[in-house]
């Protein structure tokens, strides 16, 4: 919902993301308002393309047709692939652009293809307009090529052209960030060490992100360039993976930041996996089939909305994929906000703004609340902080996203609770149990806005 609202405010960038994903979501929503099928189709197509690219990686490194099928199957049933292919998220398109980068880098190294180097730069530039992380991956790969070789792909005019293409394509977003004080860097600093990050869980999460039973396949992909003479020129790939893992660990980044590298590793790992299978067929063929089928079942339960919402609370699904819980309860949320709004005397409503603590709440009110007659919402969270502040006449605010009157101070005072959010299924997500409060604004909105603005 936030992406859709962001896309309705077209810009070269936002505090927390580049423009491509919001614009795509807004376009899909405009094409078929309210249709999740249409909204999520680009994500499904991106995940399908990533699956095909994993097979192309296997073919590029000499894999048989069987190895290509194994690479594609392992990618398709991976938890990260099902999750981002079902969900609209910047990670979906980051996974696609990073896999394109990896495939082109392999072509450039193994074939000596200058055109692949140039195309890699184009892929990075376009990818950074969806999520800037692919730029860091490209820098890590280039650094490892310089350190471990082969350096030839970096010594050509093709490489210079690729760098120029990447910079030119990413420039609108980078310029927007520079002009706004690099809010995305502030956001990255703020979310480091959050509940979704943490060094302690970083490595364990890597063991479940693809699938616990498919770990040997991508680990084999990490080791293949060191064990197979023909693949020695590709040592830069596992080295780049290791360098990025260290960067994210030191920086306390989110554990899923490495997700975009796994399709390439699965493509590399398909070769030793098929060789292992060939040494004792058909027993190992059955084992591989069981492993892939088991992965599909586990990943589907965790990544897709298969578990009834009443059973989500306390489940392994919420522990591994808390975003599932954030898809529950929004119609009831908006209905509760509407009831609170109507409880305000009509004479006071024209002097009352609706203010939320986060962009999800604000976007839900804007998209779902308009049909009920709710006014537009305001928030200081990420992109909403850029889209206007309440008019000076609004001396009161109907607020949501605060734990209580003490949490709302000092910007909001004299608060009284008009309603309380209840998703109806007892699911403890980000909004559950929050009071909807009518408060007095403690000052002018213009003066308070810097205090209300936050990036996380």
Notes on the protein architecture:
The chain is of the alpha/beta class. It has two domains: 303 residues, no CATH class; 126 residues, no CATH class. Helix content is 59%, strand content 6%. It has 21 helices and five strands. Strands 2-1-3-5-4 form a five-stranded mixed beta sheet. Helix 19 links the parallel strand 1 and strand 2. The radius of gyration is 24 Å and the shape is globular. The chain starts with a helix and ends with a helix. The model has no long low-confidence stretch (mean pLDDT 93).
Shape: globular
Helix and strand run: HHHHHHHHHHHHHHHHHHEHEEHEEH
Major sheet: size, sense and barrel closure?
A: 5 strands, mixed
The share of residues in extended strands comes to 5-15%
**Unreliable parts:** none
How much helical structure, as a percent, in the residues? 55-70%
Number of strands: 5
Number of domains: 2
Mean pLDDT: 93
Count every helix, treating DSSP H or I runs of 4 or more residues as helices: 21
Report how far apart the termini are. 17 Å
Give Rg in angstroms. 24 Å
């Amino acid at each position: 919902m936030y992406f859709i609202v962001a896309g309705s405010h077209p810009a070269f960038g936002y505090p927390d993301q580049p423009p491509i994903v919001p614009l795509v979501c807004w376009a899909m929503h405009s094409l078929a308002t309210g249709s999740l099928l249409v909204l999520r189709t680009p994500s499904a197509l991106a995940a399908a393309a990533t699956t095909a690219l994993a097979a192309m990686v296997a073919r590029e490194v000499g894999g048989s047709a069987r190895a290509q099928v194994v690479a594609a199957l392992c990618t398709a049933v991976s938890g990260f692939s099902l999750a981002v292919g079902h969900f609209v998220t910047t990670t979906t398109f980051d996974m696609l652009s990073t896999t394109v980068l990896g495939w082109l880098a392999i072509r450039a190294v193994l074939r000596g293809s200058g055109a692949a180097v140039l195309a890699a730069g184009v892929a990075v530039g376009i990818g950074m307009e969806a999520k800037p992380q692919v730029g860091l991956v490209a820098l890590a790969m280039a650094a490892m090529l310089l350190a471990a070789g082969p350096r030839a792909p970096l010594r050509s005019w093709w490489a210079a052209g690729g760098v120029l293409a990447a910079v030119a394509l990413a420039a609108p977003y980078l310029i927007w960030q520079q002009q706004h004080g690099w809010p995305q860097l502030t956001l990255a600093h703020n979310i480091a060490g959050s509940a979704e990050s943490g060094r302690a869980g970083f490595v364990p999460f890597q063991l479940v992100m693809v699938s616990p039973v498919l770990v040997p396949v991508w680990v084999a992909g990490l080791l293949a360039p060191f064990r197979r003479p023909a693949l020695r020129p590709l040592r830069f790939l596992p080295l780049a993976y290791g360098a990025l893992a260290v960067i994210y660990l030191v920086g306390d980044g989110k554990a899923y930041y490495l997700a975009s590298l796994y399709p390439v590793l699965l493509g590399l790992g398909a070769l030793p996996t098929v060789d292992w299978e060939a040494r004792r067929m058909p027993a190992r063929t059955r084992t591989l089939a069981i492993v892939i089928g088991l992965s599909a079942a586990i990943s589907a339960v965790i990544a897709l909305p298969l578990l009834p919402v009443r059973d989500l609370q306390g489940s392994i699904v919420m522990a591994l994929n808390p975003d599932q819980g954030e898809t529950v309860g929004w119609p009831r949320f908006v209905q509760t906000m509407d009831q609170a709004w109507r409880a305000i005397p009509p004479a006071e409503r024209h002097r009352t703004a609706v203010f939320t603590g986060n962009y999800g709440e604000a976007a839900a009110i804007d998209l779902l609340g308009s049909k009920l007659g709710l006014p537009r919402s305001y928030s200081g969270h990420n992109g909403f902080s850029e889209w206007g502040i309440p008019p000076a006449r609004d001396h009161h605010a109907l607020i949501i996203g605060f734990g209580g009157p003490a949490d709302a101070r000092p910007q909001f005072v004299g608060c009284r609770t008009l309603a309380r959010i209840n998703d109806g299924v007892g699911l403890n997500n980000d909004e559950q149990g929050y009071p909807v409060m009518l408060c007095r604004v403690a000052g002018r909105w213009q003066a308070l806005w810097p205090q209300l603005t936050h990036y996380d």
